[in-house]
Design goal:
258 residues, alpha/beta, 5-stranded mixed beta sheet, 53% helix, globular
């Protein structure tokens, strides 16, 4: 299909044709045939990978997932008025829309969005409710390069999030934050996920994923202040090791418990 709603100055884009593939609950729409073929051949393996690495079941998805893939930020902006890869869950229509910037240089970037989709599907299947820090933190850890970018940003910003604010923030409150505050929340969320998973293990992490669980109690701390202190120390040593280039890349990889 041709894309409608394009300005006259973008005549070349108005004539774009989409290639389309379907597999399971996924429908893949890509301007670039090679990228679309890559997703078609690998999307089920990507879904399995992001779930299994956290020790989560490789469930069948319930909702339709419509993916629109562009090879550049410029085309995504012109076609959909979106400037970065993102997704939106239309609960009333039972559809998850994904807008994706994907090319040969960033093929791993889709894994983060797949993790976000997987969390929605897990909540639906098991009637779970995950806190916002889980929804924002786990996807970031699907790409080691993104995790390194976050560590660099946090080191330069010289700010550590307050645990109390981090674990209780709701989506409506997040939406009202300034962009810089959103980014810091996302980064702190990912580091909190990393700390719990690496320092306290897969089983404890999975229990901390649930919204009503008191994390500090689950992890054996007497109160939230004690847990907050642990997090601050963790961030300090993590960032220090990163800047000294002595942080093993393997540490930033999430792997399932054997």
């Amino acid at each position: 299909p041709t894309v409608k709603g394009i300005k006259s100055s973008d005549e070349d884009l108005s004539k774009i044709s989409w290639n389309r593939w379907t597999v399971d609950k996924f429908s893949i729409h890509s301007i670039d045939k090679d990228i679309g073929t890559y997703l078609y051949k690998n999307i089920k393996d990507i879904k399995k990978e992001v779930l299994v690495k956290w020790g989560l079941p490789n469930i069948e998805f319930n909702h339709e997932i419509r993916i629109f893939c562009c090879s550049s930020e410029e085309n995504l902006q012109k076609l959909f008025n979106i400037n970065k890869s993102s997704f939106e869950f239309k609960e009333d229509k039972k559809i998850i829309f994904v807008w994706l910037i994907l090319n040969e240089s960033n093929l791993n970037s889709f894994k983060s969005l797949m993790m976000s989709i997987s969390l929605i599907e897990l909540e639906f299947k098991y009637n779970y409710s995950f806190p916002l820090w889980i929804h924002r933190g786990m996807p970031s850890l699907c790409d080691v390069n993104k995790t390194k970018e976050h560590l660099e940003y946090m080191y330069n910003a010289n700010k550590t999030g307050r645990i109390k604010n981090l674990i209780i923030l709701e989506q409506s409150e997040y939406d009202d934050l300034e962009d810089n505050s959103k980014k810091l929340f996302d980064i702190n969320s990912s580091i909190l996920c990393l700390m719990i998973r690496k320092e306290f293990g897969q089983n404890n992490f999975q229990k901390c994923m649930l919204k009503n669980v008191k994390i500090y109690q689950q992890l054996g701390f007497k109160d939230l202040d004690s847990f907050s202190l642990k997090y601050r120390y963790y961030c300090h040593y993590l960032l220090d090791d990163y800047k000294k280039n002595i942080l093993p890349e393997e540490y930033l990889n999430i792997k399932p418990k054997k």
